[in-house]
Amino acid sequence: MTTQCAACGAATEVLLDFGKMPLANGFLAADQFGVERFYELRLACCPSCRLAQLVEPPAPALMFNDAYPFFSSTSRRMAAHFEELAADVLRACEGSTDPFIVELGSNDGILLQHYAMRGIRHLGVEPSANVARAARARGVSSLCRFFDLQAANEIVATHGQADAIVAANVMCHIADIHSAAAGVAALLRRDGLFVFEDPYWADIVAQTAYDQIYDEHAFYFSVASVERLFGRHGLELIDVAPQAVHGGSMRYVLSHQGSRRVSARVRESLEREEASGLHRREAIEGFRARVETSRRELLSLLRRLRREGERVVGYGATSKSTTIINYCGITADLIECIVDTTPAKQGKFSPGAHIPIRGHGEFAASRPDAAVLFAWNHRAEILDKERAFRDRGGKWIVFVPSVCILQ
Ligand code: TMP
Predict the structure, then answer these.
(1) 203-261, pLDDT tens digit by residue?
(2) Which of 313, 340, 346 is the pocket-test mutation for ligand 1 (most atoms within 8 Å of CB)?
(3) Exposed/middle/buried for 329, CB within 10 Å: 0-12, 13-18, 19+?
(4) Half-sphere exposure for 158 (CA within 13 Å, toward CB)
(5) Mutate which of 318, 320, 345, 360 for ligand 1 pocket (most atoms within 8 A of beta carbon)
(6) Residues in the ligand 1 pocket, defined by CB under 6 Å
(7) For residue 84, is it left (φ>0), alpha (ψ between -120 and 50) or beta?
(8) pTM, rounded to two decimals
(9) What is the pLDDT of residues 52-97, one digit of tens each?
(10) Which residue minimizes the CA distance to atom 6 of ligand 1?
């Protein structure tokens, strides 16, 4: 099946098809099972501009609204990461006496709180009203709306242009990427910096981390695709820096064309991507074959454990787990519940498979024999705090980069 690239309009082939999927963050109550929404989860990679993308992302308002269940502040590791990112961005503004920093997708204020505390001018743009309220409650200025060119023009009219714009795990969520990129170009001062990070497509492919593919992630960026996409809006990629978070992310630093020196790291990364064959069709075909193997192995491991009478739970009702659970066909008779620290998810059921979501206390109390680490991107933090589980013989099941029981 061919489709049209959302960035450059070239004919683009669908290379991965996960079939019918519920909304990744569509945790629901039992009386909502009958009205659950599904969409087709299909991924295409543009041979022309290199952008990996969903073919039909659902309408943004279905995903980002007053009931958005993801609060960024649930991970200690991410809190530390955001504190460092806030400091890096502020350092880049040191030429300005009264810097103004805008964050796109500011969620519960995990990053901007560091500016709010110090009286630094800032503004968060966040379309999900519930998380934006949480940010305001900690003193973070938050505008509740989607970021696009119109929002950018209104912010400029009210506050002036920004010294820096930052977005973490957000640009890949914005389906109307051209309006957002044009908005960044309009909002950013002539000598300003746009810093964003997102899961890196090369890491997703290399690690078979196919659970990163879900409705909210409309795009899967690489250095090559970012350079081309934002270049169309007069923004130049001037630096890149790999990040260890979310199983492998890339930080992209952009400025207005010609306003800053371009780091040699940009060229080196582009060359590395080309040399690795990331953008060739065979890379995606290899990825697809590994995805199928991963599905077979995870299902057969869970079935074997059940046959042997073991009780298995899921750890972390992540958005990513919706792809794994539904694509693999995991049901509540294989995983009896998923434990999660987020109050908004507890007492509900997982999208599609309707596995019950329980509070974190249930993990120790119910003494499962094994746990599937759905929040694998927080592995070090979770294994460290759940040492008691392993000490009493509990088994961690992981599936990235491959399916295994941790030894
Ligand atoms: P994320 O992978 O998108 O960051 O989502 C993480 C989810 O996992 C979120 O619902 C919170 C949950 N979680 C826990 O339940 N316990 C933990 O220790 C961590 C780090 C996350």
Answers:
(1) 999 999 999 999 999 999 999 999 999 999 999 999 999 999 999 999 999 999 999 99
(2) 340
(3) exposed
(4) 11
(5) 318
(6) 74-75, 316-319, 340-342, 360, 375, 377-378, 381-382
(7) alpha
(8) 0.96
(9) 999 999 999 999 999 888 889 888 999 999 999 999 999 999 989 9
(10) 318
CATH number belonging to domain 72-258: 3.40.50.150
Average pLDDT value over all residues in the chain: 97
Name the DSSP class of 190: E
Q: Where in the chain is the domain with CATH 3.40.50.150?
A: 72-258
Residue nearest to atom 15 of ligand 1 (CA): 340
Cite the residue boundaries of each domain of the chain with CATH code 3.40.50.720. Answer: 282-405
DSSP three-state, residue 3: strand
The CATH superfamily label for domain 282-405 reads NAD(P)-binding Rossmann-like Domain (3.40.50.720)
Name beta bridge partners: 256.
235
Query: Which residue's alpha carbon is nearest to atom 18 within ligand 1?
Result: 382
